[in-house]
Amino acid sequence: MQGNRHSGGGSRRDFMIAAGTMAAGAVCEMGGLQAAEPVSPPIGILLATTFTTGTLEERLDAAKASGLACVQMSMVCAGLTEMPDQIPAELPGRIRRAASARGLGVASLTGTFNMCHPDAEQRRVGLRRLRILAEACAEMGTTAIHVCTGTRNPASMWRIHPDNGSAEAWQDMAACVREATEIARQAKVVLAFEPEMSNVVDSARKARRLLDEIGSPHLKVTIDPANLFHAGELPRMKEILDEAFALLGKDMVLAHAKDLDRDGEAGHKPAGQGVLDYDRYLALLRKYEYKGPLLLHGLSVAQVPGCLAFVRSKMASSLHTAL
Q1: How confident is the model at residue 15 (pLDDT cuts 50, 70, 90)?
Q2: Do 298 and 268 touch, CB atoms closer than 8 A?
Q3: What is the torsional sign of CA 193, 307, 83, 25?
Q4: What residues contact residue 175 under an 8 Å CB cut-off, 6+ apart?
Q5: SS3 sequence of 223-252
Q6: Angle between helices 278-287 and 304-318 (to 10 degrees)
Q7: Residues 6 or more apart whose Cβ sits within 8 Å of residue 240
Q8: Nearest Cα to Cα of residue 109 among 215, 228, 222
Q9: What CA–CA distances, in Å, run from 30 to 43, 105, 143, 293?
Q10: Which segments of the chain are extended strands (E)?
Q11: Which residue of 29, 173, 223, 294 is surrounded by the most CB atoms within 10 Å?
Protein backbone atom coordinates (compact mmCIF):
# COMPACT_ATOMS: atom_id res chain seq x y z
CA MET A 1 0.00 0.00 0.00
CA GLN A 2 2.65 2.48 -0.98
CA GLY A 3 2.14 5.61 -3.03
CA ASN A 4 0.35 8.91 -2.79
CA ARG A 5 -2.47 8.80 -0.26
CA HIS A 6 -4.33 11.55 -2.08
CA SER A 7 -4.10 10.37 -5.70
CA GLY A 8 -7.42 10.63 -7.46
CA GLY A 9 -10.42 11.82 -5.48
CA GLY A 10 -13.22 9.28 -5.27
CA SER A 11 -10.93 6.44 -6.39
CA ARG A 12 -11.29 2.84 -5.30
CA ARG A 13 -8.18 3.37 -3.13
CA ASP A 14 -9.87 6.24 -1.29
CA PHE A 15 -12.92 4.07 -0.78
CA MET A 16 -10.80 1.24 0.65
CA ILE A 17 -9.06 3.61 3.05
CA ALA A 18 -12.40 4.97 4.27
CA ALA A 19 -13.83 1.47 4.59
CA GLY A 20 -10.79 0.31 6.51
CA THR A 21 -11.07 3.22 8.91
CA MET A 22 -14.71 2.38 9.58
CA ALA A 23 -13.84 -1.29 10.08
CA ALA A 24 -11.18 -0.48 12.65
CA GLY A 25 -13.60 1.79 14.43
CA ALA A 26 -16.26 -0.89 14.50
CA VAL A 27 -13.93 -3.50 15.99
CA CYS A 28 -12.59 -1.22 18.72
CA GLU A 29 -15.61 1.09 19.16
CA MET A 30 -13.31 4.00 18.54
CA GLY A 31 -15.47 6.97 19.42
CA GLY A 32 -12.42 8.85 20.67
CA LEU A 33 -10.05 8.43 17.73
CA GLN A 34 -8.49 11.59 16.40
CA ALA A 35 -9.43 12.52 12.86
CA ALA A 36 -5.82 13.53 12.26
CA GLU A 37 -4.81 9.85 12.03
CA PRO A 38 -7.67 8.29 10.00
CA VAL A 39 -5.62 5.58 8.29
CA SER A 40 -3.40 4.63 11.23
CA PRO A 41 -4.17 1.69 13.54
CA PRO A 42 -5.76 2.87 16.77
CA ILE A 43 -3.15 2.71 19.51
CA GLY A 44 -4.08 0.80 22.63
CA ILE A 45 -2.45 -1.10 25.46
CA LEU A 46 -2.55 -4.37 27.38
CA LEU A 47 -4.31 -2.80 30.33
CA ALA A 48 -3.42 -5.24 33.11
CA THR A 49 0.32 -5.46 32.46
CA THR A 50 0.99 -1.69 32.54
CA PHE A 51 -1.73 -0.24 34.77
CA THR A 52 -1.26 -2.83 37.49
CA THR A 53 -3.10 -1.23 40.40
CA GLY A 54 -6.48 0.33 41.07
CA THR A 55 -10.05 -0.56 40.27
CA LEU A 56 -11.25 -1.35 36.76
CA GLU A 57 -12.49 2.21 36.37
CA GLU A 58 -9.25 3.71 37.72
CA ARG A 59 -7.18 1.70 35.27
CA LEU A 60 -9.39 2.80 32.40
CA ASP A 61 -9.12 6.40 33.59
CA ALA A 62 -5.34 6.09 33.44
CA ALA A 63 -5.46 4.65 29.92
CA LYS A 64 -7.74 7.44 28.76
CA ALA A 65 -5.58 10.12 30.39
CA SER A 66 -2.57 8.71 28.55
CA GLY A 67 -4.21 9.37 25.18
CA LEU A 68 -4.83 5.74 24.27
CA ALA A 69 -7.75 4.68 22.09
CA CYS A 70 -8.43 1.12 23.18
CA VAL A 71 -7.38 -1.63 25.56
CA GLN A 72 -6.84 -5.34 25.71
CA MET A 73 -8.90 -6.23 28.75
CA SER A 74 -7.97 -8.83 31.35
CA MET A 75 -10.20 -10.18 34.07
CA VAL A 76 -7.36 -9.29 36.44
CA CYS A 77 -8.41 -5.65 36.06
CA ALA A 78 -11.73 -6.53 37.67
CA GLY A 79 -10.21 -8.38 40.60
CA LEU A 80 -10.51 -11.90 39.15
CA THR A 81 -7.89 -14.32 37.91
CA GLU A 82 -6.97 -14.01 34.24
CA MET A 83 -8.88 -17.22 33.43
CA PRO A 84 -11.66 -17.36 36.04
CA ASP A 85 -13.96 -20.29 36.69
CA GLN A 86 -16.87 -17.87 36.93
CA ILE A 87 -17.58 -14.30 35.87
CA PRO A 88 -20.17 -12.31 37.86
CA ALA A 89 -23.21 -11.70 35.68
CA GLU A 90 -22.99 -7.92 35.94
CA LEU A 91 -19.25 -7.66 35.15
CA PRO A 92 -19.16 -7.86 31.33
CA GLY A 93 -21.72 -5.08 31.02
CA ARG A 94 -19.85 -3.02 33.59
CA ILE A 95 -16.66 -3.36 31.57
CA ARG A 96 -18.35 -2.28 28.37
CA ARG A 97 -20.07 0.70 29.96
CA ALA A 98 -16.93 1.84 31.77
CA ALA A 99 -14.84 1.70 28.60
CA SER A 100 -17.50 3.34 26.47
CA ALA A 101 -17.99 6.17 28.96
CA ARG A 102 -14.31 7.02 28.53
CA GLY A 103 -14.29 6.73 24.75
CA LEU A 104 -12.17 3.57 24.89
CA GLY A 105 -12.69 0.47 22.82
CA VAL A 106 -12.30 -3.03 24.21
CA ALA A 107 -10.13 -4.28 21.38
CA SER A 108 -9.56 -7.76 22.78
CA LEU A 109 -9.62 -9.93 25.87
CA THR A 110 -6.71 -11.85 27.39
CA GLY A 111 -7.40 -15.58 27.33
CA THR A 112 -3.96 -17.17 27.43
CA PHE A 113 -3.50 -20.63 28.87
CA ASN A 114 -1.01 -23.39 28.14
CA MET A 115 -2.51 -25.15 25.11
CA CYS A 116 0.39 -27.61 25.07
CA HIS A 117 0.69 -28.37 28.78
CA PRO A 118 2.01 -31.93 29.23
CA ASP A 119 -0.92 -32.63 31.58
CA ALA A 120 -4.08 -33.10 29.50
CA GLU A 121 -6.23 -32.13 32.48
CA GLN A 122 -4.57 -28.72 32.57
CA ARG A 123 -5.54 -28.24 28.92
CA ARG A 124 -9.13 -29.26 29.64
CA VAL A 125 -9.34 -26.76 32.50
CA GLY A 126 -8.04 -24.06 30.20
CA LEU A 127 -10.64 -24.88 27.55
CA ARG A 128 -13.43 -24.76 30.13
CA ARG A 129 -12.32 -21.35 31.32
CA LEU A 130 -11.89 -20.13 27.75
CA ARG A 131 -15.54 -20.91 27.11
CA ILE A 132 -16.51 -18.77 30.10
CA LEU A 133 -14.53 -15.85 28.67
CA ALA A 134 -15.82 -16.36 25.14
CA GLU A 135 -19.43 -16.36 26.26
CA ALA A 136 -18.87 -13.02 28.05
CA CYS A 137 -17.32 -11.27 25.06
CA ALA A 138 -20.48 -10.02 23.36
CA GLU A 139 -21.72 -8.22 26.46
CA MET A 140 -18.19 -6.94 27.10
CA GLY A 141 -18.10 -5.35 23.66
CA THR A 142 -15.31 -7.32 22.02
CA THR A 143 -15.00 -10.09 19.46
CA ALA A 144 -11.32 -11.07 19.86
CA ILE A 145 -9.51 -13.18 22.46
CA HIS A 146 -5.72 -13.22 22.59
CA VAL A 147 -4.29 -16.71 23.19
CA CYS A 148 -0.94 -18.52 23.04
CA THR A 149 -0.12 -21.98 21.69
CA GLY A 150 1.76 -22.99 24.82
CA THR A 151 4.84 -24.96 25.74
CA ARG A 152 5.79 -28.32 27.20
CA ASN A 153 7.24 -26.47 30.18
CA PRO A 154 4.87 -27.38 33.05
CA ALA A 155 5.97 -24.49 35.25
CA SER A 156 5.36 -21.55 32.90
CA MET A 157 3.68 -21.13 29.54
CA TRP A 158 6.23 -18.38 28.76
CA ARG A 159 9.30 -20.61 29.03
CA ILE A 160 10.73 -22.69 26.22
CA HIS A 161 11.11 -26.46 26.52
CA PRO A 162 13.22 -28.89 24.46
CA ASP A 163 10.13 -30.98 23.66
CA ASN A 164 8.30 -28.08 22.01
CA GLY A 165 9.52 -29.21 18.61
CA SER A 166 8.27 -32.79 18.97
CA ALA A 167 5.45 -34.30 16.94
CA GLU A 168 3.59 -35.12 20.15
CA ALA A 169 3.71 -31.50 21.33
CA TRP A 170 2.32 -30.28 18.02
CA GLN A 171 -0.42 -32.91 18.08
CA ASP A 172 -1.57 -31.99 21.60
CA MET A 173 -1.40 -28.27 20.87
CA ALA A 174 -3.28 -28.52 17.58
CA ALA A 175 -6.02 -30.64 19.15
CA CYS A 176 -6.44 -28.08 21.92
CA VAL A 177 -6.48 -25.19 19.45
CA ARG A 178 -9.12 -27.02 17.39
CA GLU A 179 -11.37 -27.36 20.44
CA ALA A 180 -10.74 -23.75 21.39
CA THR A 181 -11.62 -22.61 17.89
CA GLU A 182 -14.91 -24.48 18.07
CA ILE A 183 -15.67 -22.66 21.32
CA ALA A 184 -14.89 -19.40 19.53
CA ARG A 185 -17.18 -20.34 16.63
CA GLN A 186 -20.07 -21.05 18.99
CA ALA A 187 -19.53 -17.76 20.81
CA LYS A 188 -19.04 -15.83 17.53
CA VAL A 189 -15.60 -14.56 18.49
CA VAL A 190 -12.12 -14.89 17.02
CA LEU A 191 -9.06 -16.36 18.71
CA ALA A 192 -5.80 -14.56 17.92
CA PHE A 193 -2.71 -16.66 18.70
CA GLU A 194 0.77 -15.20 18.81
CA PRO A 195 3.84 -16.84 17.27
CA GLU A 196 6.53 -16.46 19.93
CA MET A 197 9.89 -17.91 20.82
CA SER A 198 8.92 -19.87 23.93
CA ASN A 199 5.87 -21.58 22.43
CA VAL A 200 5.31 -24.51 20.09
CA VAL A 201 4.36 -22.06 17.35
CA ASP A 202 7.58 -20.04 17.39
CA SER A 203 7.71 -18.76 13.82
CA ALA A 204 5.54 -17.37 11.06
CA ARG A 205 5.89 -20.60 9.12
CA LYS A 206 4.55 -22.68 11.98
CA ALA A 207 1.74 -20.16 12.44
CA ARG A 208 0.81 -20.58 8.78
CA ARG A 209 0.87 -24.35 9.22
CA LEU A 210 -1.50 -24.12 12.19
CA LEU A 211 -3.90 -21.79 10.39
CA ASP A 212 -4.03 -24.12 7.40
CA GLU A 213 -4.42 -27.20 9.58
CA ILE A 214 -7.34 -25.78 11.59
CA GLY A 215 -8.91 -24.02 8.60
CA SER A 216 -11.35 -21.81 10.49
CA PRO A 217 -12.25 -18.13 10.14
CA HIS A 218 -12.41 -18.07 13.94
CA LEU A 219 -8.65 -18.60 14.27
CA LYS A 220 -6.44 -15.62 13.48
CA VAL A 221 -3.06 -14.15 14.46
CA THR A 222 -1.58 -11.65 16.89
CA ILE A 223 1.64 -10.29 15.40
CA ASP A 224 4.48 -9.21 17.66
CA PRO A 225 7.72 -8.89 15.65
CA ALA A 226 9.81 -8.65 18.82
CA ASN A 227 9.04 -12.33 19.43
CA LEU A 228 10.01 -13.67 16.00
CA PHE A 229 13.82 -13.72 16.06
CA HIS A 230 15.59 -16.95 16.96
CA ALA A 231 19.21 -16.86 18.07
CA GLY A 232 21.38 -15.51 15.28
CA GLU A 233 18.49 -14.18 13.20
CA LEU A 234 18.54 -10.50 14.12
CA PRO A 235 20.78 -9.56 11.14
CA ARG A 236 18.00 -10.95 8.90
CA MET A 237 15.36 -8.60 10.32
CA LYS A 238 14.05 -7.33 6.97
CA GLU A 239 13.77 -10.85 5.56
CA ILE A 240 12.02 -12.24 8.63
CA LEU A 241 9.55 -9.36 8.89
CA ASP A 242 8.73 -9.57 5.18
CA GLU A 243 8.25 -13.33 5.37
CA ALA A 244 5.99 -13.08 8.42
CA PHE A 245 3.69 -10.65 6.67
CA ALA A 246 3.74 -12.58 3.41
CA LEU A 247 2.62 -15.69 5.30
CA LEU A 248 0.28 -14.15 7.86
CA GLY A 249 -0.55 -10.59 6.80
CA LYS A 250 -4.12 -11.32 5.77
CA ASP A 251 -4.83 -13.21 9.01
CA MET A 252 -3.60 -10.62 11.52
CA VAL A 253 -6.31 -9.15 13.75
CA LEU A 254 -4.16 -7.92 16.67
CA ALA A 255 -0.71 -6.29 16.61
CA HIS A 256 1.65 -5.64 19.52
CA ALA A 257 4.15 -2.81 19.87
CA LYS A 258 7.16 -3.61 21.98
CA ASP A 259 10.89 -3.96 21.24
CA LEU A 260 14.03 -6.07 21.58
CA ASP A 261 17.76 -5.45 21.87
CA ARG A 262 18.97 -8.95 20.95
CA ASP A 263 17.57 -12.09 19.36
CA GLY A 264 16.29 -15.19 21.08
CA GLU A 265 14.12 -14.73 24.19
CA ALA A 266 14.48 -10.97 24.13
CA GLY A 267 11.30 -9.20 23.04
CA HIS A 268 10.41 -7.43 26.27
CA LYS A 269 11.55 -3.82 25.92
CA PRO A 270 9.24 -0.82 25.44
CA ALA A 271 8.65 0.30 21.87
CA GLY A 272 11.42 2.59 20.68
CA GLN A 273 14.01 1.38 23.20
CA GLY A 274 15.47 -1.41 21.08
CA VAL A 275 16.45 -2.27 17.53
CA LEU A 276 13.16 -3.35 15.92
CA ASP A 277 12.67 -1.67 12.53
CA TYR A 278 9.42 0.12 13.31
CA ASP A 279 9.38 1.95 9.98
CA ARG A 280 9.24 -1.36 8.17
CA TYR A 281 6.86 -3.00 10.67
CA LEU A 282 4.29 -0.23 10.40
CA ALA A 283 4.71 0.05 6.63
CA LEU A 284 4.01 -3.68 6.38
CA LEU A 285 0.88 -3.30 8.49
CA ARG A 286 -0.23 -0.64 6.04
CA LYS A 287 0.74 -2.67 2.95
CA TYR A 288 -1.32 -5.63 4.12
CA GLU A 289 -4.26 -3.35 4.98
CA TYR A 290 -4.25 -4.22 8.66
CA LYS A 291 -7.43 -2.88 10.30
CA GLY A 292 -6.98 -3.85 13.95
CA PRO A 293 -5.42 -2.07 16.94
CA LEU A 294 -1.74 -1.58 17.72
CA LEU A 295 -1.33 -2.52 21.39
CA LEU A 296 1.56 -1.24 23.50
CA HIS A 297 3.09 -3.98 25.61
CA GLY A 298 6.03 -4.51 27.96
CA LEU A 299 6.19 -1.01 29.44
CA SER A 300 5.64 0.82 32.73
CA VAL A 301 3.17 3.62 33.35
CA ALA A 302 6.02 6.14 33.24
CA GLN A 303 7.06 4.87 29.81
CA VAL A 304 3.64 5.22 28.18
CA PRO A 305 3.95 8.87 27.01
CA GLY A 306 7.33 8.30 25.37
CA CYS A 307 6.27 5.06 23.69
CA LEU A 308 3.05 6.58 22.46
CA ALA A 309 4.92 9.55 20.97
CA PHE A 310 7.44 7.19 19.36
CA VAL A 311 4.77 4.99 17.76
CA ARG A 312 2.80 7.98 16.49
CA SER A 313 5.96 9.42 14.95
CA LYS A 314 6.78 6.13 13.28
CA MET A 315 3.23 5.80 11.98
CA ALA A 316 3.67 9.14 10.23
CA SER A 317 7.05 8.23 8.78
CA SER A 318 5.88 4.77 7.67
CA LEU A 319 3.63 6.47 5.12
CA HIS A 320 6.79 7.20 3.15
CA THR A 321 8.70 3.96 3.81
CA ALA A 322 9.54 2.14 0.57
CA LEU A 323 9.09 -1.63 0.69
Answers
A1: very low
A2: yes
A3: negative
A4: none
A5: ECHHHCCCCCCHHHHHHHHHHHHHHHHHHE
A6: 60
A7: 204, 228, 229, 233
A8: 222
A9: 10, 6, 14, 10
A10: 43-46, 70-73, 105-110, 144-147, 190-193, 219-223, 252-259, 269-270, 294-296
A11: 223
Tell me the whole-structure pTM to 2 decimals: 0.87
Distance CA 237, CA 73 (A): 31
Within 10 A of 221 (CB to CB), how many other CB atoms are there?
27
Handedness of CA 53, 59, 63, 64 (dihedral sign): negative
pLDDT band for position 30 (50/70/90)?
very low
* 16 has pLDDT over 70: no
Long-range contacts of 3-6 (CB under 8 A, 24+ apart): 5/39, 5/319
Strands 269-270 and 252-259: antiparallel
Q: To the nearest whole percent, how much of the chain has pLDDT over 70?
A: 87
Burial-class residue 132 by CB neighbours within 10 Å (0-12, 13-18, 19+).
Answer: middle
List, as one string, the DSSP characters of 261-320: SSSSS---EETTSS---HHHHHHHHHHTT--S-EEE-S--GGGHHHHHHHHHHHHHHHTT
CB 83 within 8 A of CB 133: yes
CA-based end-to-end distance of the chain = 9
